[in-house]
TrEMBL record:
SMART domains: PKS_ER. GO terms for cellular component: cytosol. It comes from Trebonia kvetii. This is NADPH:quinone reductase. It comes from the Bacteria. One of its GO terms (molecular function) is NADPH binding. The keyword NADP applies.
Amino acid sequence: MRAIVYAEKGPSSVMRLVDRPVPSPGPEQVLVRMVRAGVNPTDWKARAGSSSAAGSSFEEVTPGQDGAGFVDAVGSGVTSVSVGDRVWLYLGQHGTPHGTTAEYCVLDWHRAVPLPDEASFDLGACLGVPAITAHRALTSGDASFRLGPGTLAGQVVLVHGGAGAVGNAAIQLAAWSGATVLSTISSDAKAALAVAAGAHHTIKYRTADAAAEIGRLAPDGVDLIVEVSPAVNNELDLAVARNGATIAIYANNGGDTFPLSIRATFARNLRYQFLLLYTLSPSLLAAAAADVTAAVAAGALRVGEEAGLPLHHYPLADLAAAHDAVEGGATGKVLIDIADE
């Protein structure tokens, strides 16, 4: 099979296209014939050596956490999917050297989730890291709290960076769950993407008084904040959060630390929720995968310009260029075309 591999950390040029044997699934594993793979910031960061979140070091790595394709074979003990089923994948390369940027990917059965018939492989490859991260940002506590129609009714959700892949998924999932969704954005073009995703209001933080504008839109305060840049936005978050609100932090864009006024924060019963996909418990991952799949089946999770998430396709051999595009801040989602549907 064709696969992209790298044997050392470094720039995108360390990756090369090779031919490798098709792997066989072990007990409780599935072998997936890949159609699409999704590229996330975590992929290039792991390859460059700036993050170890995606897994341990191996002699040779095929990158890629997300993707979609057909089940080609199943190991003993697998009953959740059958040969020929369409599936979307998450955490494909976590804890293993074999990720999704290859013609075949072998992984534990619970990371291969049935893809609803009406969903494209493009959509399936866009789920994984963004949608599961967004799901966790919108939930709290154990896996008993689930997203679905009406579960966030009456709440105001503020999504920072609504034009990004996680922000896009958070907007779509929050809107599907009945919340009023606000999103901060940096330009008119990104505002249009956030609105296409389902945001009810957008705030251009570079030119507007964001706190005043959010206060006008949500006079009783924001119930839940999905935060990508806490070092930059914490003062704003404290200004607009209602008593008892949650600030869910999934990235450190703009800085690794931020000051916190302890008394002013606990006096308002605020809750900070930090989250990282790779260290979530299996029960939380399973709950997220189930809710995300339900949202896909309901037509609530969509991709493409009309859904606020432009798609950028690259062939497998051009994975280096795809990594560079994501590292360079490409707006939307970068996908790898591995096979015809």
